[in-house]
Amino acid sequence: xxxxxxxxxxAVAAATVLGTAAxxxxxxxxxxxxxxxxxxxxxxxxxxxxxxxPDGQSALAGATLAExxxxxxxxxxxxxxxxxxxxxxxxxxxxASIATKLVxxxxxxxxxxxxxxxxxxxxAAIFQRNKVPMISAYAVNPGIPATGNFIFQADFNGxxxxxxxxxxxxxxxxxxxxxxxxxxxxxxKALVTxxxxxxxxxxxxxxSEARNQFGETSFExxxxxxxxxGADSIYMVxxxxxxxxxxxxxxxxxxxxxxxxxxxxxxxxxxxxxGDLANGVMWTTNLNRQSKAPATQAFLKDFKxxxxxxxxxxxxxxxxxxxLLVEGMKKGGVTPEEIQKGLMQVKDFTxxxxxxxxxxxxxxxxxxxxxxLFQDGKIVSAGEISDPExxxx
Length: 393
Fold this sequence. Notes:
By secondary structure, this protein is α/β, with parallel strands linked by helices. Helix content is about 40%, strand content about 20%. The strands form three sheets. A seven-stranded mixed beta sheet has the order 7-6-8-9-10-14-15, sandwiched between helices. A five-stranded parallel beta sheet has the order 2-1-3-4-5, sandwiched between helices. It is globular.
């Protein structure tokens, strides 16, 4: 079985940030479809500006590293791949507009979303309508692959990750009465749905539940309510900015409960920004930084050599998504239809985020959920969740 593996490099030149504007921009050229010998064009969009810019920077760096590695290794049948990149500014309208440009003007044969669920969902409808395969690198909304047979999800959906969070709380912290404090968007809703589903199966009782918006700075009431309700743990579903505010409020309240979080805080710089307050927080993600797998360690090494910031889940997921498209091309061909068929044939793919057994019939990834832990100023592995019933899309 052919498997694309990340090839380690002694040194990698600084990753080129491909030109983008607020609405978009592109790099590369040549034929996007199968005809001719030009570059094989792959669309990529991510939030380079706006509140999610740190994730966008990381996602783009992971994707451009993959582009360089693929081309340095000979490309696909001697043809280079070329990323055509756009900035969606965390705006769903931009997601749809960018997808339209990619398929009608740039003539890409496939695309990767390096963005969040709202932008990814908006773009997915356009790609599906035009029968151009798209891989969502890290957006977790279950509705993304449900858009149609050309849309794939390379990170576990939010329901799967939520189930894993409940299981980890029960296994690692013996929690029986968790409280939920979650951001109120597609990401938060999907994760909470999975968490509550698994919690019920485990006989856990959710004693309180609070929702918040982007930019929330006042978490004290929700934390106090959780403590007053008799919570023995907290499921904290937030992004980096909100997660930092949560931990500051947690310290102020003086609570002392185990915290289970999610990949929303698995971004470059979170530990640096919050320090010791993060000590003991565990979270679900798809990147195990302590993995001994050569592909993971090569990615971590090469990313550090190419960038001035640390690799994270977003970078690793975007890196793997590009390699997955290349694997689909090698198995099927380089037209959109051939890539779609090739992706459905991918099995035992090994990348930066570990080994996935393949895509489900509904095009959702199947692989273990990783547990990471902030401990004494470092990120360490806390195991993984591999129960097939929990991982079932």
